[in-house]
Amino acid sequence: MKYLLASTFAALIAAASTAATAQTAGSSDTPKLQCAIGYVTGIGGSAQSFREYLATPNRDRYRFLADNPIQCKVSDEGRASGCTGLTSLRNEKVSVYDDVDNETMSVVARVELEHGTYPVIIVVRRQDVKCEE
Q1: What are residue 39's DSSP bridge partners?
Q2: Which contiguous run of DSSP H or E holds residue 7?
Q3: Residue 12 half-sphere exposure, CB side, CA atoms within 13 Å?
Q4: Per residue in 76-118, pLDDT tens?
Q5: What's the distance, CA 94 to chain centroid?
Q6: CB burial readout 30-43, b (16+ within 10 A) else e
Q7: d(CA 53, CA 58)
Q8: How far is residue 65's CA from residue 14's CA, in Å, rounded to a whole number?
Q9: Which backbone phi and psi does 97 adopt, to 5 degrees?
Q10: In angstroms, what is the C-alpha Rg of the chain?
Q11: Structurally, how many domains does the chain consist of?
Q12: Range of 96's domain?
């Protein structure tokens, strides 16, 4: 019985130290959003299109946005994939998905496509995401 109690206690300590190590390992100089739901106001799109948009001179960005509307393949189950292009978001509620780099992150947003509105994973600027309070 004492052995069982001691091994359980040791397992709890190991689990706690692993969780603490995982939290500190994720910290860096870049502030990470610590929320699951947020709101985005700005431009978002497929990773490739968004990188091209950011590389475009400011004077040409509106034209680039107009010439590259977001398009996705929609499966019979209603899943959007293979997206290209960009979309403009105005205070759109999103699920924070993943950090891409120091300036951008992936979110799941409801996007108006040719066939209706679907949840799509898009890349947005980190500064355009505000956490839900």
Answers
A1: 93, 130
A2: helix 2-25
A3: 6
A4: 888 899 999 999 999 999 999 888 888 999 999 999 998 899 9
A5: 8
A6: eeeeeeeebbbeeb
A7: 9
A8: 51
A9: -100, -55
A10: 20
A11: 1
A12: 34-131
Residue labelled with tokens 């292009």: 85
Q: Is residue 87 part of a domain?
A: yes
Tokens of 55: 């590389």
What's the pTM value of the predicted model, to 2 decimals? 0.71
Q: How many residues does the structure list for the chain?
A: 133
Q: Is residue 62 part of a domain?
A: yes
CB 95 within 8 A of CB 46: no
Is 26 part of any domain? no
pLDDT digits (tens, 9 = 90+) for 13-56: 444 333 333 444 444 454 555 788 999 999 999 999 999 999 99
Beta bridge partner(s), residue 80? 74
